[in-house]
Amino acid sequence: LYTPEERAGIQGYLSSVWGISAVIGPLAGGVIVERLSWPWVFWINLPIGVATIAGLMVYLHEGVEHHAHKVDYLGSVFFAVGISALLGALTQASQPSNTGSLALAFAAIAAFSLGLFVWQERRAREPMLSLELWTHRVIASANGATLAAGMTLIGVTTFLAVYVQAVMGYSATVAGFALTMMAVGWPVASTLSRRFYNWIGMRSTLRVGSVFLILGGLVFYLLEPTSSPALAGLGSMLMGFGMGLLNTAVILLVQGSVEWRQRGSATASNLFSRNLGSTLGAAVLGTALNLALKDAGVAPEAIRRLLDDAPKGDLSHLRAALDQGLHLTFGLVVLLSVGTLALALFIPDRTLDELSK
Question: What span, in angstroms and rounded, lies between the C-alpha atoms of 235 and 122?
Answer without folding.
Answer: 43
